[in-house]
Amino acid sequence: MTLGYSLSYLQQVGLVNAAGYDTFSQRVIFPLESNLYGRSMVNAAAHRFLPGAKGGLYRWERVKQSPEVILVEGLFDLAVLWQAGFRNVTCAIGSHLNARQFQQLCDGVSRTVYLAFDSDVNGSGQQAAQQLSWRLLKQGVTALRVELPDGHDPNSFFARGGDGRQFQYLLEKAKP
């Protein structure tokens, strides 16, 4: 039975690969504003998007009026914080914001942005947070960097026994 979409069309939009297989197989799928994101659950390329831009900050419409926003890199980081009761969290889907995402944070609303980026062994997440903090401060946005334990992101922090109270303490200790 066909639903009216040709194999070539499904390949063109990125849902099926050249061999005819589902490109999002064995992935947790998150619908984005104008795309799909799939996080691998097996030994495959970790991140997959449909062709096109990733769009704005994830869940921005739900948090943009909040006086405090927690910005994380990954959607699993967002999910674990949401589960722990933090409703003011958004995600850039990576450590480098695109122009639209940066504009969303610099929309003239007075808020504090907590940058809860990964504490990577190579320092890339914290370096990106430092650079973003400076850029936001230049635009008049209060930005504070959350220092997670070495080697952790918000998801692994909670997966290894951290709780909401402990994460709140990290927010309170955040630095410009």
Give me the secondary-structure topology.
Elements lengths: L6 H6 L14 E5 L4 E5 L6 E3 L10 H4 L4 E5 L2 H9 L5 E3 L7 H7 L6 E4 L8 H15 L3 E4 L8 H6 L4 H9 L4
Parallel strand pairs: 4-5, 4-6, 6-7
Antiparallel strand pairs: 1-2, 2-3
Describe it for me?
This protein is an alpha/beta fold and 176 residues long. It folds into 2 domains: 11-49, no CATH class; 60-172, Dna Topoisomerase Vi A Subunit, Chain: A, domain 2. It has 7 helices and 7 strands. It has a 4-stranded parallel sheet with strand order 5-4-6-7, sandwiched between helices. A 3-stranded antiparallel sheet has the order 1-2-3, with no helix packed on it. Strand 4, helix 3 (75-83) and strand 5 (89-91) form a beta-alpha-beta unit. The protein starts with 6 loop residues before the first helix and ends with a helix.
Distance from N terminus to C terminus (CA atoms, Å) equals: 58 Å
Q: Rough shape?
A: globular
Count structural domains: 2
Indicate the percent of residues in helices: 25-40%
CATH C-level class of the largest domain? Alpha Beta
* Secondary structural class: alpha/beta
Rg, please?
18 Å
**Poorly predicted spans:** none
User: What's the helix-strand series?
Assistant: HEEEHEHEHEHEHH
User: Main beta sheet, described?
Assistant: 4 strands, parallel
Number of strands: 7
CATH architecture tag of the largest domain: 3-Layer(aba) Sandwich
| Strand numbers in spatial order across the main sheet | 5-4-6-7
Helix count, DSSP H or I runs of 4 or more residues: 7
**Which topology of the largest domain does CATH recognise?**
Dna Topoisomerase Vi A Subunit, Chain: A, domain 2
Average of per-residue pLDDT values:
92
Strand content: 15-25%
